Task: inverse folding
């Protein structure tokens, strides 16, 4: 069986097939996950030098990376800094930038970013 125009967002399905003899076969599963939802700008809240990031609404997120970029008056990038996060436990790995679902402390959703001239 082929499902035309199947969703690509990992949504679940139940398929029931009846044959001519009256027997029903049922299959369940999930469609492939090929959708990437962008992080919405409305989820970024500025208050002075602090930025607060809301947890993503989508259910299948795993990582949220934060990169601070400074652009000069000439329009060229001057500096880039990946902002790290605090974790609930350590696995003796190098520091990881960004927020990891299930590992990151709530404090990691707020960052203080110094103003640049």
Result:
């Amino acid at each position: 069986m082929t499902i035309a125009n199947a969703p690509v967002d990992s949504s679940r399905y139940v398929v029931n097939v009846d044959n001519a003899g009256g027997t029903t076969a049922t299959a369940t599963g999930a469609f492939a996950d090929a959708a990437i939802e962008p992080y919405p700008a409305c989820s970024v809240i500025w208050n002075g030098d602090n930025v607060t990031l809301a947890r993503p609404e989508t259910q299948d997120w795993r990582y949220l990376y934060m990169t601070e970029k400074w652009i000069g008056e000439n329009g060229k990038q001057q500096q880039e800094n990946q902002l790290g996060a605090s974790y609930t436990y350590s696995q003796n790995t190098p520091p990881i930038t960004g927020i990891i679902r299930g590992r990151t402390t709530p404090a990691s959703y707020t960052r203080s970013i110094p103003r640049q001239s």
Notes: The chain is about 0% helix and 35% strand.
